[in-house]
Amino acid sequence: MRYTPAGLPALNLQLEHESQVTEAGGQRTVKVVVKAVAFGTLAERLAKQALGSVWKFNGFLANARHGKSVVFHIQDFLQD
């Protein structure tokens, strides 16, 4: 947990996803790791969750500050 200059709680984390999809008639394993951030009371709630637990996240993708990567901004989460 960190705090913005305005005193708002912020949490930087990584989200990991793995699933099976059908592509060109065959099964394919899809894996991705995405940088994410949450702010305010949402960051405080998220910080209390166990590492490795499974969740569904809602939010949006935006460029990172330096524009060389993508960050998922978490706006809500629910236990899967």
Q: Secondary-structure blueprint of this entry?
A:
Blueprint: E1 2-3, E2 9-23, E3 26-39, H1 40-47, E4 55-63, E5 70-79
Parallel strand pairs: 3-5
Antiparallel strand pairs: 1-2, 2-3, 4-5
Mean pLDDT score = 94
Q: Considering the protein shown, what is the CATH homologous superfamily?
A: Nucleic acid-binding proteins
The helix count comes to: 1
Globally, the shape reads globular
Approximate helicity band:
10-25%
**What is CATH's topology name?**
OB fold (Dihydrolipoamide Acetyltransferase, E2P)
Task: Work out the radius of gyration.
Answer: 15 Å
Question: What class would the helix/strand composition place it in?
Answer: mainly beta
What composes the largest sheet?
5 strands, mixed
* Strand order in the sheet with the most strands: 1-2-3-5-4
CATH architecture field:
Beta Barrel
The H/E string reads EEEHEE
The structural domain count equals: 1
Strand content: over 45%
CATH class: Mainly Beta
Low-confidence stretches: none
